[in-house]
Amino acid sequence: MNAVAKTVNLVKIYQDGAVPVPAVRGVDLQVEPGEFVAVMGPSGSGKSTLVHMLGGLDTRTSGEIWLDGKRVDTLSESAWALLRRKKIGFVFQFFNLVANMTVGDNVELPALLSGASPKVARRRRESLLAALNLTDRADAAPAQLSGGEQQRVALARALANEPALLLADEPTGNLDSRNTRDVLRLLGDVHKDGQTIVMVTHDARVASLADRVVSLFDGEIVDDGRIVRRRTGTAGEVIDLR
Amino acid sequence: MSTTRAGSRWVRADLRARKGPAALTVLAVAGIVAALITAVTLLEDGTNPWRGLFAQTEGAHVWIYTKDGPQVSLGGIDGVAETAGPYRSAPVTVAQDGRRDPAALRAMPATPPAVAHPVVAEGRWLDPAQPDGVVVERSFARSLGLRIGAPFTIIALNGGRHTLYVRGIADSADQGFYPEWTPGLAYVLPVMLDRVEPVQARSEWVTGLRLDDPEASQVVSQRAVVMLEDGLQRVYTWREVRASMELDNRLLGTLLALFGVVGLVAAALALANAAGGRVLGQLRDLATLKSMGFTKGQVALLLLVEHGALGLLGIALGAVTGWGVMAAMLGPSSVAAGPVLAIVAGTALVVLAAVGLPAWRGGRTPPIPAAPAAPPRGHLSRLARLALLVRLPPALVLGTRDAFTRRVPAFLTAFGLAVPMMMITIGLGVWSTLDSFKSHPEQVGQHASLYVRPGKLEPAAAQRIAERDKDVAAVYPGTDVNALAPGEARSVRVRALGGSAQPYPFPVVEGRMYARQGEAVAGQGLLDLLGVEIGDRVRLTVGGTPLIVRIVGRAVEPDQDGEVLSLGLDSLAEKDAEPPTYYALALQPGADPAEVRGRLLGESAEGLDVQAAVNPADRLSVIRVVIVALIAVLALIGLANLLTASALGLRDHAFDLAVLKAMGLTPRQVMATLVTGTGLLVVLGIGAGAVAGASVVTALIDLQGHTSGVGAGIGRAPSPVTLAVTVVVAVGAALAVALIPARRAARAQVPVTAR
Ligand SMILES: Nc1ncnc2c1ncn2[C@@H]1O[C@H](COP(=O)(O)OP(=O)(O)OP(=O)(O)O)[C@@H](O)[C@H]1O
Ligand SMILES: [Mg+2]
């Protein structure tokens, strides 16, 4: 079976003025289907850059990116966009909901974009919001929601197109522990249903939910370890371990 | 398909979130399009009734007036297809409800001719069974308030009164509309004309020539001039008739076109501003859309559709409104489809171009949502430093800094307000020009406010009565004659008024007033027509007598498209000058013309015919309505720009507000900061617009005056007081508008969380 995502000697150098800033320096990473990978590392180590490149939000300087067995680093910007519709879901630190659209519309948008009929999109949104306990907030504006609720909506939105790969950049970075627990429980649930996830986090306890933790330092992978899972471990318990 | 669905959701949601500004955009564009369509319709021939009338009546292209029945065969001239007449015509005065109107009574047969036959609109044509019947040309009948069956009392040159009865009201393209074209036209049977005016010498003969090629009218009329020699009185062609029928519409159309075109630029700017500001405010959302899988092109297209749709909706609304107004005013067939389509297509292009750039920029938003949407900050602008230097309160300093941190939007805001303000100033200039027509009629050649025709009295007696009145300051004997210019296809008006030594004070704006016999002043229209300049000598023919004068100056000339030569009575040949046909009465300052008129009529036992001068401003009063409407549309455009600016300013500050408050600024100071930011640009824009408008308005009006023949020298800038009040009102209103969102923002609890 093909890896969901694979990078070969991936390099990103920002040309910021005269000084080149190397953000990612030769990363080889392979994400298997159904895997939940946590990317850790100090600030500025290139975590976001790596995830952005995996989703085509940023272009690589050199190296290869493969998604579902296809080479994608050579794709044009719009080809990437088309690919994202079908295969990738993003969750960002600051939720990034479209401010003018209702919660329901925010969730339906990617489903519609991936080609679902309005009826199907609506059904998917209903089931997602129900799973996230947000059914009664469907007509609210994002601004009326708490941070945790917004991030749950963002997660629902990221899943609405049934992506092969869910990319999450510090999804809990802006949440308190209670909301963090809620969001992590959701991530754990979708992972259990077979969703492949790559999640950036600062927080070792959050990372411990993953199957595998990749540590970045100065744009290079310094550690790549599988976590031996406690069979009964759930997100809730992880957080409760203090 | 999938993107269409997803995109339309987003567009709908976004429009819902900004209903007010969106509606404003639609209204502003609609106003401009309506103005443009109105302008084009008024300028286009379609509204000129001449075309329809000429076709209906199978009109004649050239009209020739001769002393006697023409002795030569005018029908034999090359290019003449058919002739109408010759008909005998006699000048009479129509006495109606105390009014006296000059009329030409034309003898026509009971069976209408094939060419230039009046088309009866009401009633019937002349009938030998009713010899006292008269058919009156429609505009003349309307001006006199005549209906079928009404008595039509005329006074012949010999003073005899005759009462005829209106049997019909007819449309005709034989001459222009009354009262722009005098005398009015009425048709009677030849037997009746013989009874009214038995003296052949007091009448003239009218012949109409229908040509194979309308463009040949110049050549044909010159032929006729040569053939008829001394017998010829005057000639005019279909061009003069058409021009006289479109007179006022053209001026109005030009005004509307000017405002429409500049307004379109302003509206495009407002649209670009609004779209650009909106895009700046939405960078995060756009990035999110891209992270979801919208391509660059699709995002640009979304923005183009959203903002373009508002413009297109405005265009549709404006087209319907403009068409509706024109159809209501001038009849449904007056609006030509071609130009309207061109306007719709043209404005649509402008709209799409205006929103295209911001849309393209929005499409290029990087898809990484963390992209900062903060304003560039850092350096204090020079102005802000100045504000610090003179120890302005902190709120003002901050506001001043904000005003210029984003240079391009700052410029666009100021410019977007300056353009409407400039147009408003121009509108006010037109207004004050009309006011000055009214308050200083002598500056448009209306030094005299009453015109007295001797009527039943001897001219000398009329003059005596006029001179005796205590409110009459001066009496100028005068006479108007038609003169033929060499090589011209038509007659021009020669107005002899007063003596050359004590000339009637024509408003000479170039050269000098005539001071002796043989000198004259001319209107711009005449200079253009004859292709002469001040200082040139012109040779005209008045009833066979040559008239050679030197043009020494140009006068403002609102009559006859400026095609008037004014000179002293003594410059005219004795036979044309004596006796004067009328007396122009200049009144004492403050005297009421109506009162003087009443007195003169009383003194003369109704023997005099006294007319008040018609101020050109009265004819143009509809322009004031148009100016008010245009100012409203321009204010809308300015408002749209302002809303964009303050929305952008607020967005830039949404996250600074908490910081500002934490720094210790009170809500009031926060508000002052925000208002200063936009207010400074407002003041700059409005000030610049007013200055620009005031400096071009006189030249613009004079340009219009020049092209319309009246001549330069009529333009007036709005008075300083008016301008100051307008600027203060505009700035005040703008600040009030900027205050509302600023107040709300200053009061609101701003979360300190990240963006
Ligand atoms: N657009 C950019 N232009 C220039 N340099 C950039 C840009 N984005 C990131 N960098 C640099 O690349 C490096 C990696 O940045 P990145 O955002 O990937 O780090 P990170 O690991 O996500 O950090 P954090 O934990 O703070 O989010 C940093 O040194 C950063 O300064
Ligand atoms: Mg990061």
Summarize the entry for a quick read:
Chain A has eight helices and ten strands. Chain A has 242 residues and is of the alpha/beta class. Chain A has one domain (33-59, 76-240): P-loop containing nucleotide triphosphate hydrolases (Rossmann fold), CATH 3.40.50.
Give an account of the 3D structure.
- Chain A is built from 8 helices and 10 strands.
- Chain A is an alpha/beta fold and 242 residues long.
- Chain A has a single domain (33-59, 76-240), classed as 3-Layer(aba) Sandwich (Rossmann fold), CATH 3.40.50.300.
- A 6-stranded mixed beta sheet of chain A has the order 6-7-8-3-9-10. In chain A, strands 2-1-4-5 form a 4-stranded antiparallel beta sheet, covered by helices on one side.
- The longest helix of chain A is centred in the C-terminal third of the chain and has 16 residues, at 177-192.
- Chain A starts with a strand and ends with a helix.
- Chain B folds into 4 domains: 1-63 and 212-372, no CATH class; 80-211, no CATH class; 374-440 and 616-755, no CATH class; 447-614, no CATH class.
- In chain B, α7 (238-281) runs antiparallel to α13, α7 packs parallel to α19 and α13 packs antiparallel against α19 (622-653).
- Chain B starts with a helix and ends in an 8-residue tail after the last helix.
- The A-B interface holds A 48, 52, 55-58, 77-78, 81-86, 88, 90, 92-94, 96-102, 105, 108-110, 112-116, 118, 147, 157, 161, 174 and B 1-3, 5-6, 9-10, 13-14, 16-17, 284-285, 287-298, 366-370, 753-755.
- The structure holds adenosine-5'-triphosphate and magnesium ion (MG).
- Residues 14, 16, 21, 23, 41, 43-49 of chain A line the site of adenosine-5'-triphosphate (ATP).
- Chain B: It is a multi-pass membrane protein.
